[in-house]
Write a structure and sequence with these properties.
alpha/beta, five-stranded mixed sheet, 28% helix
Length: 168
Protein backbone atom coordinates (compact mmCIF):
# COMPACT_ATOMS: atom_id res chain seq x y z
CA UNK A 1 0.00 0.00 0.00
CA UNK A 2 1.33 3.40 -0.96
CA UNK A 3 1.64 6.20 1.50
CA UNK A 4 -1.02 8.95 0.89
CA UNK A 5 1.78 11.50 0.61
CA UNK A 6 3.21 9.63 -2.40
CA UNK A 7 -0.21 9.38 -3.99
CA UNK A 8 -0.63 13.16 -3.72
CA UNK A 9 2.82 13.73 -5.22
CA UNK A 10 2.03 11.38 -8.12
CA UNK A 11 -1.31 13.12 -8.76
CA UNK A 12 0.34 16.56 -8.75
CA UNK A 13 2.98 15.36 -11.22
CA UNK A 14 0.33 13.83 -13.50
CA UNK A 15 -1.81 16.97 -13.36
CA UNK A 16 1.21 19.15 -14.20
CA UNK A 17 2.19 16.87 -17.08
CA UNK A 18 -1.31 16.91 -18.64
CA UNK A 19 -1.64 20.66 -18.14
CA UNK A 20 1.67 21.29 -19.94
CA UNK A 21 0.73 18.82 -22.67
CA UNK A 22 -2.51 20.70 -23.29
CA UNK A 23 -0.97 24.18 -23.08
CA UNK A 24 2.03 23.62 -25.35
CA UNK A 25 0.93 20.82 -27.71
CA UNK A 26 -2.82 20.31 -27.95
CA UNK A 27 -4.05 23.92 -27.67
CA UNK A 28 -1.73 25.29 -30.43
CA UNK A 29 -2.60 22.29 -32.64
CA UNK A 30 -6.36 22.88 -32.36
CA UNK A 31 -6.07 26.66 -32.79
CA UNK A 32 -3.94 26.22 -35.93
CA UNK A 33 -6.39 23.67 -37.31
CA UNK A 34 -9.35 26.01 -36.64
CA UNK A 35 -7.65 28.97 -38.33
CA UNK A 36 -6.74 26.89 -41.38
CA UNK A 37 -10.30 25.60 -41.73
CA UNK A 38 -11.73 29.13 -41.34
CA UNK A 39 -9.47 30.42 -44.12
CA UNK A 40 -10.48 27.51 -46.37
CA UNK A 41 -14.19 28.20 -45.63
CA UNK A 42 -13.66 31.87 -46.54
CA UNK A 43 -11.92 30.79 -49.76
CA UNK A 44 -14.85 28.55 -50.70
CA UNK A 45 -17.27 31.40 -49.98
CA UNK A 46 -15.25 33.64 -52.32
CA UNK A 47 -14.91 30.98 -55.07
CA UNK A 48 -11.13 30.95 -54.68
CA UNK A 49 -8.69 28.15 -54.15
CA UNK A 50 -6.46 28.28 -51.11
CA UNK A 51 -3.60 25.85 -50.67
CA UNK A 52 -2.08 25.39 -47.23
CA UNK A 53 1.67 24.80 -47.22
CA UNK A 54 3.04 23.36 -43.97
CA UNK A 55 6.53 24.73 -44.52
CA UNK A 56 8.05 26.81 -41.74
CA UNK A 57 10.09 29.68 -43.19
CA UNK A 58 11.32 32.46 -40.88
CA UNK A 59 9.46 31.02 -37.87
CA UNK A 60 6.03 31.15 -39.50
CA UNK A 61 3.39 28.60 -38.45
CA UNK A 62 2.27 27.82 -42.01
CA UNK A 63 1.89 29.37 -45.45
CA UNK A 64 -1.15 29.86 -47.66
CA UNK A 65 -1.12 30.17 -51.42
CA UNK A 66 -4.07 32.17 -52.77
CA UNK A 67 -4.20 33.35 -56.41
CA UNK A 68 -0.47 32.69 -56.97
CA UNK A 69 0.38 34.77 -53.90
CA UNK A 70 2.01 33.14 -50.88
CA UNK A 71 1.26 34.48 -47.39
CA UNK A 72 3.40 33.65 -44.36
CA UNK A 73 1.15 33.15 -41.33
CA UNK A 74 2.18 33.48 -37.69
CA UNK A 75 -0.38 32.89 -34.95
CA UNK A 76 -0.44 35.01 -31.81
CA UNK A 77 -1.97 32.99 -28.97
CA UNK A 78 -3.87 35.72 -27.16
CA UNK A 79 -6.67 35.75 -24.61
CA UNK A 80 -10.24 36.64 -25.56
CA UNK A 81 -11.16 40.35 -25.28
CA UNK A 82 -7.62 41.46 -24.59
CA UNK A 83 -5.95 44.64 -25.80
CA UNK A 84 -2.91 44.13 -28.02
CA UNK A 85 -0.26 46.84 -28.00
CA UNK A 86 2.66 46.95 -30.44
CA UNK A 87 5.57 48.97 -29.07
CA UNK A 88 8.11 48.13 -31.77
CA UNK A 89 8.67 45.39 -34.34
CA UNK A 90 9.60 42.79 -31.72
CA UNK A 91 7.79 43.96 -28.57
CA UNK A 92 4.11 43.05 -28.39
CA UNK A 93 2.10 43.26 -25.17
CA UNK A 94 -1.27 41.76 -24.32
CA UNK A 95 -3.32 43.62 -21.70
CA UNK A 96 -6.22 41.96 -19.95
CA UNK A 97 -8.41 43.03 -17.06
CA UNK A 98 -8.24 40.99 -13.89
CA UNK A 99 -11.08 40.38 -11.44
CA UNK A 100 -10.23 43.61 -9.61
CA UNK A 101 -10.37 45.57 -12.93
CA UNK A 102 -6.62 46.10 -12.88
CA UNK A 103 -4.75 45.66 -16.15
CA UNK A 104 -2.42 42.70 -16.35
CA UNK A 105 0.32 42.98 -18.98
CA UNK A 106 1.95 39.99 -20.63
CA UNK A 107 4.65 40.20 -23.26
CA UNK A 108 4.25 38.02 -26.33
CA UNK A 109 7.46 36.23 -27.22
CA UNK A 110 8.52 34.37 -30.35
CA UNK A 111 7.82 37.06 -32.96
CA UNK A 112 11.34 38.46 -33.44
CA UNK A 113 12.47 36.12 -36.25
CA UNK A 114 9.14 36.42 -38.04
CA UNK A 115 9.08 40.22 -37.83
CA UNK A 116 12.71 40.55 -38.99
CA UNK A 117 12.00 38.45 -42.08
CA UNK A 118 12.48 40.12 -45.46
CA UNK A 119 9.69 38.06 -47.06
CA UNK A 120 6.62 39.84 -48.38
CA UNK A 121 2.99 39.11 -47.40
CA UNK A 122 3.56 38.42 -43.72
CA UNK A 123 0.36 38.06 -41.71
CA UNK A 124 -0.10 37.86 -37.93
CA UNK A 125 -3.34 36.09 -37.05
CA UNK A 126 -4.84 36.42 -33.58
CA UNK A 127 -6.05 33.13 -32.10
CA UNK A 128 -8.98 34.85 -30.39
CA UNK A 129 -10.70 38.15 -31.10
CA UNK A 130 -9.02 41.11 -29.40
CA UNK A 131 -10.93 44.20 -28.28
CA UNK A 132 -8.35 46.64 -29.62
CA UNK A 133 -5.05 46.53 -31.43
CA UNK A 134 -2.88 49.61 -30.95
CA UNK A 135 0.49 50.61 -32.32
CA UNK A 136 2.67 53.04 -30.38
CA UNK A 137 3.91 55.86 -32.62
CA UNK A 138 5.89 57.79 -30.02
CA UNK A 139 5.71 58.41 -26.28
CA UNK A 140 2.29 60.03 -26.38
CA UNK A 141 0.64 58.82 -29.62
CA UNK A 142 -1.01 55.57 -30.59
CA UNK A 143 -2.96 54.51 -33.65
CA UNK A 144 -5.63 51.85 -33.93
CA UNK A 145 -4.62 48.96 -36.17
CA UNK A 146 -6.94 47.12 -38.53
CA UNK A 147 -6.31 44.60 -41.30
CA UNK A 148 -5.32 47.29 -43.80
CA UNK A 149 -2.76 48.92 -41.53
CA UNK A 150 0.81 48.06 -42.40
CA UNK A 151 2.65 47.33 -39.14
CA UNK A 152 6.36 46.91 -39.92
CA UNK A 153 5.51 45.32 -43.30
CA UNK A 154 3.08 42.93 -41.63
CA UNK A 155 -0.72 42.86 -41.47
CA UNK A 156 -2.61 41.79 -38.36
CA UNK A 157 -5.90 39.90 -38.74
CA UNK A 158 -8.35 39.90 -35.85
CA UNK A 159 -10.50 36.84 -36.69
CA UNK A 160 -11.50 38.31 -40.08
CA UNK A 161 -9.99 36.44 -43.02
CA UNK A 162 -11.56 38.45 -45.85
CA UNK A 163 -8.22 40.33 -46.24
CA UNK A 164 -6.86 37.40 -48.24
CA UNK A 165 -9.60 37.65 -50.85
CA UNK A 166 -9.85 41.38 -51.44
CA UNK A 167 -8.86 42.41 -54.95
CA UNK A 168 -5.63 44.37 -54.98
Amino acid sequence: MLNPFYIIIILVILFTFFHLLYKFVLYPFFIKKRIKSNIIKEAVANNTTAIIINQHIDNCDFQIKINDKIFLIKIIYNKKNCDLQINNFETFFMYQKTFSNALKAKQIFGLKTFMKSTKQNRILVLAKKAKTIKKVINECEMIMVDENTNVYNTHILNQDYSYFFKSK
